[in-house]
């Protein structure tokens, strides 16, 4: 049972309640706490302050309505090189699909903790379905103010058997409806690297597996002391991110200490390059650090689809990128080793990609 607000202000086991019993930060927020539990207080250097945020610059917004258009393809490659992040509009994924998956996310997290916790690491019958809170609580010095459901796609049959019914159909629909645009983006990015055909092997490395996460950031007491998600880059090839209208995602500008906000645009999808594509492109396309603030007045949701190599793929700089004598800066690595390395430690900015450096 959840503690009362008066119990909550005494010393009680926050970790046991939020992590082990599966109440998550939503459970903490529902208690109406007035102060942030100590376990969520981030060190000052990780707290997000206005001093490093700039508002005179923004990630590109790219209109895909005239596909295929060389100018648009160039804009995609330039954005991937200079920002690692961009937004797309007129992308072809129907608005109703986007609305349905956002609604399903709210429905899943609106359920009682006992229901959500059936999908926790300890209770889920499969590693492919995981409900949790923060990022990797056992390895973190300070927790993050976020609950998540992470769904690794294997097949429709497996999803029908294992994914939570509160959001299963909508999550699959979003994944399927975004396939065309994912392929287009990857084709454009590959052309920019002199890869003119995506054969079977490249298809596996670029988009052989997918994971969809549903993220829930409840409103937070003392939001300035914590983070929604700490500084990290994604380990994917590309991430297709749907956010609601609240805002709070910040992206680090290349070669600087400045951060820019990613403003919510109705109907837009945020795209970012992940570590796998940075490695495949030998550093040409940038997997950029990003983070999410906690919000003191409203709940926020987001739904990233991580497009990845298959776990069994070996990834390294593509031969086409090295054909003119360019030196590889990354070694060949087994993708699942890379991902395990990422998941076993707390968020630490761009450190993960060093694991693959020569
Ligand atoms: C959650 O908050 C996040 C997430 C992110 C994610 C960003 C991405 O880019 S996700 C894309 C990742 N790529 C893939 O999923 C495709 C490839 N998949 C694999 O290689 C494997 O499925 C695997 C992920 C490595 C799992 O392999 P398995 O053999 O089953 O290994 P395990 O022992 O189960 O897991 C290893 C280790 O990782 C932890 N873990 C696994 N899955 C998740 C998950 N979805 N979320 C969090 N942690 C996970 C697991 O607990 C294990 O750690 P232990 O300490 O328990 O050993 C970005 C930002 C966020 O805030
Ligand atoms: O919630 C967001 O806007 C971004 C979340 C994120 O970076 C992630 O899940 O990898
Ligand atoms: Fe991310």
UniProtKB/TrEMBL annotation:
<comment type="similarity">
    <text>Belongs to the iron/ascorbate-dependent oxidoreductase family.</text>
</comment>
<feature type="compositionally biased region" description="Basic and acidic residues">
    <location>
        <begin position="113"/>
        <end position="122"/>
    </location>
</feature>
<dbReference type="InterPro" id="IPR027443">
    <property type="entry name" value="IPNS-like_sf"/>
</dbReference>
<protein>
    <recommendedName>
        <fullName>feruloyl-CoA 6-hydroxylase</fullName>
        <ecNumber>1.14.11.61</ecNumber>
    </recommendedName>
</protein>
<comment type="pathway">
    <text>Phenylpropanoid metabolism.</text>
</comment>
<dbReference type="Pfam" id="PF14226">
    <property type="entry name" value="DIOX_N"/>
</dbReference>
<dbReference type="InterPro" id="IPR005123">
    <property type="entry name" value="Oxoglu/Fe-dep_dioxygenase_dom"/>
</dbReference>
<dbReference type="GO" id="GO:0002238">
    <property type="term" value="P:response to molecule of fungal origin"/>
</dbReference>
<keyword id="KW-0479">Metal-binding</keyword>
<feature type="region of interest" description="Disordered">
    <location>
        <begin position="110"/>
        <end position="132"/>
    </location>
</feature>
<keyword id="KW-0408">Iron</keyword>
<keyword id="KW-0223">Dioxygenase</keyword>
<dbReference type="GO" id="GO:0009805">
    <property type="term" value="P:coumarin biosynthetic process"/>
</dbReference>
<dbReference type="GO" id="GO:0016706">
    <property type="term" value="F:2-oxoglutarate-dependent dioxygenase activity"/>
</dbReference>
<dbReference type="GO" id="GO:0046872">
    <property type="term" value="F:metal ion binding"/>
</dbReference>
<feature type="compositionally biased region" description="Polar residues">
    <location>
        <begin position="123"/>
        <end position="132"/>
    </location>
</feature>
<dbReference type="Pfam" id="PF03171">
    <property type="entry name" value="2OG-FeII_Oxy"/>
</dbReference>
<dbReference type="InterPro" id="IPR026992">
    <property type="entry name" value="DIOX_N"/>
</dbReference>
<keyword id="KW-0560">Oxidoreductase</keyword>
<feature type="domain" description="Fe2OG dioxygenase">
    <location>
        <begin position="208"/>
        <end position="309"/>
    </location>
</feature>
<dbReference type="InterPro" id="IPR044861">
    <property type="entry name" value="IPNS-like_FE2OG_OXY"/>
</dbReference>
């Amino acid at each position: 049972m959840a503690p009362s607000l008066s119990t909550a202000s005494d010393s009680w086991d926050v970790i046991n309640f939020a992590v082990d019993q599966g109440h998550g930060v939503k459970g903490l927020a529902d208690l109406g706490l007035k102060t942030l539990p100590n376990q969520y207080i981030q060190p000052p250097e990780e707290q997000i302050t206005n001093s490093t945020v700039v508002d005179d610059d923004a990630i590109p917004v790219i209109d895909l309505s005239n596909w295929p258009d060389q100018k648009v393809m160039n804009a995609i490659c330039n954005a991937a090189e200079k920002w690692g992040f961009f937004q797309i509009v007129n992308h072809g994924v129907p608005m109703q699909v986007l609305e349905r998956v956002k609604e399903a996310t709210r429905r899943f997290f609106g359920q009682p903790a006992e229901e959500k916790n059936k999908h926790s690491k300890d209770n889920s019958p499969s590693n492919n379905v995981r409900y949790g809170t923060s990022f990797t609580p056992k390895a973190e010095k300070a927790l993050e103010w976020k609950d998540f459901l992470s769904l690794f796609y294997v097949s429709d049959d497996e999803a029908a058997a294992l994914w939570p019914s509160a959001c299963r159909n909508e999550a699959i629909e979003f994944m399927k409806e975004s396939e065309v645009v994912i392929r287009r983006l990857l084709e454009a990015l590959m052309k920019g690297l002199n890869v003119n055909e995506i054969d079977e092997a490249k298809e596996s490395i670029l988009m052989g597996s997918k994971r969809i996460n549903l993220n829930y950031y409840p409103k937070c007491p003392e939001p300035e002391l914590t983070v929604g998600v700490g500084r990290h880059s994604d380990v994917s090839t590309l991430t297709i991110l749907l956010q609601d209208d609240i805002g709070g995602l910040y992206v680090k500008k290349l070669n600087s200490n400045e951060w820019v906000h990613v403003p919510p645009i109705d109907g837009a999808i945020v795209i970012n390059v992940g570590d796998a594509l940075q490695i495949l492109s030998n550093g040409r396309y940038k997997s950029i650090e990003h983070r999410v603030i906690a919000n003191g007045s409203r709940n926020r949701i987001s739904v990233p689809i991580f497009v990845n190599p298959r776990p069994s793929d070996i990834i390294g700089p593509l031969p086409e990128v090295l054909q003119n004598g360019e030196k590889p800066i990354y070694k060949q690595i087994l993708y699942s080793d890379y991902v395990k390395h990422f998941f076993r430690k707390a968020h630490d900015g761009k450190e993960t990609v060093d694991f693959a450096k020569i």
